[in-house]
Amino acid sequence: MTGMAMAERAAPSLVVAGLQAWYGESHILQGVDFEVRPGEVVTLLGRNGAGKTTTLKAIMGVLSKRSGSVSFAGRETIGLTSDRIARLGIAFCPEERAIFASLSVRENLMLPPRVATGGLTLERIFDLFPNLAERLSSGGGKLSGGEQQMLAIARILRTGARFLILDEPTEGLAPVIVRQIGRTIAELKREGFTILLVEQNFRFAATVSDRYYVMENGRIALSYANADLDPNNMERLHVRLGV
Amino acid sequence: MLFGHAITAQQLFGQLLIGLINGSFYAMLSLGLAVIFGMLNIVNFAHGALYMLGAFGAYFALHLFGLNYWWALIVSPIAVGFFGALIERTMLTRLRGLNPLYGLLLTFGLALVIQGLFQNFYGASGMPYAIPPQLAGVRNLGFMYLPNYRAWVIVFSAVICFATWFAIEKTRLGAYLRAATENPTMVRAFGVNVPLLITATYGFGVALAALAGVLAAPITQVRPGMGADILAVVFAVVVIGGMGSILGSIVTGFTLGVVEGLTKVFYPEASNTVVFVIMAIVLLIKPAGLFGRTA
Predict the structure, then answer these.
(1) Residue B185 to residues A102, A171, B182, B195: CA-CA distances in angstroms?
(2) Which CATH architecture has domain A3-241?
(3) What does the alpha-carbon distance between residue B10 and residue A19 come to, in Å, rounded to a whole number?
(4) What is the pTM of this model?
(5) Left if phi > 0, otherwise alpha if psi is -120 to 50, otherwise beta: which for A69?
(6) What is the pairing mode between strands A14-23 and A65-72?
(7) What number of other Cβ atoms are within 10 A of residue B110's Cβ?
């Protein structure tokens, strides 16, 4: 590892402090604090309505009302619009996947603009998701749920962003596809991507994550590193998550 | 003969030509409306007034700056396009997220203001604008005489319509546009400056109207009311083609111009109403329009 990379590793990539956010009048996030260090896979866990997705949206700047601090690579982003935040090198894969039905698969894949050099090549992307190569000329609306999820991840790998935000990438998918997405995340981690994940599926999260934050009522309630997960902590975690 | 009077080939092709000319204007205007509606969800009632501004732009370019028709073809749409961008940035942007009715009312009001101002200064009658010398004259096709300028208008607007369709359906910028029509929040979260894209889209749609205005200047004269006259038919065209459909607005525009022209030959009494009759029928059978996707 070069000295430069070592220095980057020392400083956190993303620091969220006292983050608050609102949907209309409802005060959803009530002061969220956590950090993600370069090269880590960090997962936000929690029950439905705990504020996980809202946290991701607030980081990405797609919520109109938010306050507190979100700094990325040392830069405060709370006052920036979402297009400026994306251009800093954060790429977002939303829960609803947001595949554009009026665009072909190829157009969907090529849509997000490059924000930095060093994005994955198309060959590499088709290595990870061979199914997509066969469906390039199909309409975006014609894909199965699994294909949509693969496309939603694939298109943000091209952009050169090294920080990925994935909201429930395994939701509603068949086990074989969940495993494929798990392998992809592990592969991306090996290539040095930093990933912030939201998951309901703890078993899946445990296969890819370095650390976990458990959210409750719009705050971080607990945090664990993978190494801390002895049977005792597992028990407490299961109670918190209601699984 | 049909309807009791003889129809000469000269008459038939003459009206067909006029139909194609009108169709060119319908196509360019409804194309601009479709682009704007798709992206901004605004029914742009100012479109006729901006078409008129395009024609006046050509007139001013000539009389104030000594710029001929060919310069006007470039300068007037750009100037009116920037005026449109200003309208979007200062007014329409405040209506985002509100009921589309507000946009309709605002642009309708704008149209009245612009048209009223020009009527105040230039009266209701038209001012002549000469056909550029390069396009003056008539060509004898054997079965009819074809004025060069009219041939130019038809070919040029067909090229512009095709280029616009190509840009929207086949290019990267067009993909941004279509994606942002579907889900602007997500496109913005990918790093695209969507508000700028929206302003540019409105400016472009308006520039298309102004370009049609420049093309029309030598044919219809430059007149404050020229936009209001054509807009009623253009809206019928948009309804028939389907709101927001790019290809639909182009095809329907040219087709209805021709239908109108043919009606003038075979049953002149109906020529002013035929488009609206077709609109009523289409609304009954296919409310989303011939090319529209059902919402």
Answers:
(1) 16, 22, 9, 10
(2) 3-Layer(aba) Sandwich (3.40)
(3) 76
(4) 0.89
(5) beta
(6) antiparallel
(7) 18
Which residues in chain B have their CB less than 8 angstroms from residue A103's CB?
Answer: 175, 178-179
> What residue ranges do the domains of chain A occupy?
3-241
Tell how far CA B180 is from the center of its chain. 23
- CATH code, residues B2-285: 1.10.3470
- What is the percent of chain B with per-residue pLDDT over 70, rounded to a whole number? 97
- Residue A126 DSSP class: H
Contact across the interface for B183 and A100, Cβ inside 8 Å: yes
The alpha carbon dihedral of B240, B244, B247, B250 has a sign of positive
pLDDT single digits (tens) A193-202: 999 999 988 8
Which residues neighbour A180 within 8 Å (Cβ) at sequence distance 6 or greater?
A150
Report which secondary-structure segment, H or E, holds A213: strand A211-216
Residue B155: how many other CB atoms lie within 10 Å: 11
| pLDDT of amino acid A68 | 97
DSSP codes, A140-163: GGGS-HHHHHHHHHHHHHTT---E
Question: Is the CB of residue B191 less than 8 Å away from at least one CB of chain A?
Answer: yes
Q: Could you give the CA distance from residue A101 to residue A108 in angstroms, rounded to a whole number?
A: 9
CA distance B286 to chain A (A): 21
Interface of A with B (CB under 8 A): 60-62, 81-83, 85-87, 91-92, 94, 98, 100-103, 107, 110-113, 115, 156, 159
* Complex ipTM: 0.90
Q: Which of B179, B185, B191 sits opposite A103 (nearest CB)?
A: B179
Please state the domain extents for chain B. 2-285
- Cβ–Cβ of B194/A101 closer than 8 Å? no
